[in-house]
Write a structure and sequence with these properties.
By secondary structure, the protein is of the alpha+beta class. The protein folds into two domains: about 70 residues; about 250 residues, no CATH class. Strands 5, 6, 7, 8, 9 and 11 form a six-stranded antiparallel β-sheet that branches. Strand 6 and strand 7 form a beta hairpin. The C terminus is likely disordered.
């Protein structure tokens, strides 16, 4: 009996020690990463920022490969996005290095559950956005990624299958920036992410080959993009009695729905079509509603968006090496 009690006490003590050691190790990783992130965002030259970023990526990959690292609650700068799917299938980390000329280059890592091995595997995300031809319609991977700082990760479900959609922002360059709606999925028996799916339905005149939605617009304006509770306006024809006879009457109804809502963008003046550095919000608000495994465009959306809302991420014009998340900050999920 004494031997059994000793074994139990020893086992509990060993587990407690291992947990304490893991916490100390992950805390050390986090502290070192935060020091490097500070250099990535504030160092005075491109060379210093990129050198710090290279060291950071080596350290981060080592940290994410540690057992139980997926359970660690990361406390990183607000300029780093950390998002986790609701089913704990994966977690994605994204940030950007801003060059002296105002160009953004995004970086990221993804931890994805290997269900057969019951462990999380790690993929680095390589930003190739400047080299991707026709990115709206191109299937991409971790090695060929349309770089973004992701601001939200939407987990939806249809017919027993999970669908994951990322909302992102890319600071682009000195004259243009992007908002992106990016589906992500994983092929059978693979933990490598695949980006872009033809699950957007934009009406009869819309392009049915779109794999992601990219809003391109001027550097000096703000464009809303978020997942929120909004209202869809539906029209219903009913018969009513009028002057002694039955007539058709159109009735509008507002139905609350949770959807991806955004500002439609267009050229400031006619003749600038396709010159996205001159694109601004048109005043029309649209939404994508998830319906039976598809994102269906709802142009008649009565969006209650905040007007003149500041960008989630802005550039300090006096120091292009830094950017920061304005209220509300990145959510660490």
């Amino acid at each position: 009996m004494k031997r059994i009690l000793f074994a139990i006490v020893f086992s509990l003590s060993f587990c407690g020690l291992a947990k304490a050691q893991n916490k100390e190790m992950m805390s050390n990783f986090q502290n070192e990463m935060n020091e490097l992130f500070e250099l990535v965002f504030t160092a005075p030259t491109d060379n210093e920022r990129y050198n710090a970023n290279e060291q950071l990526m080596v350290l981060m990959e080592e940290a994410l490969l540690q057992p139980k690292s997926f359970d660690w609650e990361w406390k990183l700068p607000k300029t780093v996005s950390v998002l986790t799917s609701k089913d704990d299938k994966f977690r994605v980390f994204t940030w950007a290095v801003v060059r002296d000329d105002g160009e953004f280059e995004c970086f990221g890592y993804m931890q994805v559950l290997n269900e057969n091995a019951d462990l999380y595997e790690v993929s680095a995300l390589k930003d190739m956005s400047d080299e991707i031809f026709n990115p709206d319609e191109t299937a991409l991977t971790d090695n060929n990624w349309f770089g973004c700082i992701y601001t939200d990760l939407i987990t939806t479900k249809h017919d027993g299958k999970y669908f994951y959609t990322l909302l992102g922002w890319n600071g682009g360059n000195a004259i243009m920036q992007y908002r992106v709606i990016e589906p992500v999925y994983f092929k059978k028996n693979s933990t490598r992410p695949s980006f872009g799916q033809m699950i957007f339905r934009n009406g009869k005149d819309g392009n049915r080959n779109l794999r992601r939605i990219i809003l391109r617009y001027s550097k000096d304006v703000n464009v809303n993009l978020r997942y929120d509770d909004q209202f869809v306006i539906t029209k219903e024809r009913i018969k009513v009695k009028q002057d002694g006879r039955m007539v058709n009457q159109e009735l509008e109804r507002e139905t609350p729905e949770r959807m991806i809502v955004f500002d439609k963008v267009g050229p400031r003046v006619q003749g600038m079509e396709g010159l996205y550095q001159y694109y601004v919000p048109t005043g029309e608000e649209c939404g994508y509603l998830f319906d039976k495994g598809r994102w269906v465009l709802k142009p008649n959306v009565h969006c209650k968006l905040e007007k003149n809302k500041k960008l989630d991420v802005i550039i300090d014009n006096n120091d292009p090496s830094t950017y920061q998340k304005k209220d509300p900050g990145y959510m660490h999920k």
